[in-house]
Amino acid sequence: MKTYRVAVIGLGVGRGHIEEAWATLPGQFELTVVCDLDAGRRDSVAQEYGCDASDDFDAVIAREDIDIVDICTPPALHLPQVESALSAGKHVICEKPLAGSLDEIERLELAERRAPGVLMPVFQYRFGAGAKAARRIIDEGIAGKPLVATAETHWFRDAAYFDNPWRGNLRAELGGTMTTHAIHIHDMMSWLMGPVEAVFGRMATRIHDIETEDTASASVAFASGALGSLSACTGSHDEFSRLFMAFEHVSFETTRAPYAVGRGPWTITARDPERQARCDEIARACADTPERFTGQMMAFHDALEAGAPPPVGVADARAAIAFLTAFYRSAATQRQVTLPLSDTDPARSGWLPAAS
Ligand SMILES: NC(=O)c1ccc[n+]([C@@H]2O[C@H](COP(=O)([O-])OP(=O)(O)OC[C@H]3O[C@@H](n4cnc5c(N)ncnc54)[C@H](O)[C@@H]3O)[C@@H](O)[C@H]2O)c1
């Protein structure tokens, strides 16, 4: 088994990747260097974990002893940094949102095809006992056809959270609570329910003096004919995430853990006792599944060792970016937007207003 040497770029949530994965899976990964413009952040992590520290992204990705570059910088930096790290021959992991438009996703697909390394976007909610059991129950045909879903991302963010130059800034963050927070549960929803085909969205900025939306709702139709209602807000004093999905034979409901939607046990209810027994059996078999960054990075290691595609790929980020494209277009025009967009649709270049 190979131990892959990792460079982490950006030490906000990047520190979480280290705590949950890079520093706790020693046979699989070795944290080799951390990179941040903030000297306090990089020195404290380097001291705690005994790795190198740098403020120079280009120098870090040029190092021959690095196998994986884990990009955890603000959103607008993802595209150029992922392209550079792939060109440098590394495997690349990147936080969400992977890019700000479908055109940019295409650039990254091309960059990955041309590079020796692979690109894995971070969608850590998919990892955990609840998500794994649901996926298996659906894949085995026990649940039947999807009918309806509700996805809620109700969190609280105070003014101090936005006291960071990229947060709340449309061009740096690329979007508000739908892009930065609810992207995870919406990824999970379409991973389990199937692709989204039509979106009607509404959004508002009601809590802080920021450029991005902090309150949003959407009505979606899935390609299967199932329907969904989504809401997201960063002013909810009761902080929770919740995904409910009714299928023909089985209903699934997550816990309310705000930041670990994949965590079990989910409430999985079948109408008939035989299906219930099979669901319970699967849930028991999945109970010890590693969750969040631990689960995703372990699965990444397995994929690298097997020469298989990463457990989350650019196609998954493409679906998330397509949904956001449709959501923002719909919120701006107050018309339903259908997916996929045509090859010539100008919305493929993104949802930010044209620079003046
Ligand atoms: N998956 C998740 O659950 C999750 C959670 C939080 C944030 N995120 C995502 O992670 C990214 C970072 O968010 P955050 O909350 O950690 O932000 P943050 O501002 O706390 O941290 C970003 C860090 O990147 C550093 N940085 C900026 N430019 C750099 C450069 N050129 N080279 C090296 N370092 C640089 C900054 O100094 C800062 O320390 C965002 O895309 C965000 O959406 C994901």
UniProtKB/TrEMBL annotation:
One of its GO terms (molecular function) is inositol 2-dehydrogenase (NAD+) activity. The keyword Oxidoreductase applies. Gene3D superfamilies: Dihydrodipicolinate Reductase, domain 2 (3.30.360.10), NAD(P)-binding Rossmann-like Domain (3.40.50.720). Residues 5-120 form the Gfo/Idh/MocA-like oxidoreductase N-terminal domain. Keywords: Oxidoreductase. Residues 133-239 form the GFO/IDH/MocA-like oxidoreductase domain. This is Inositol 2-dehydrogenase. It comes from Palleronia marisminoris. The gene is iolG.
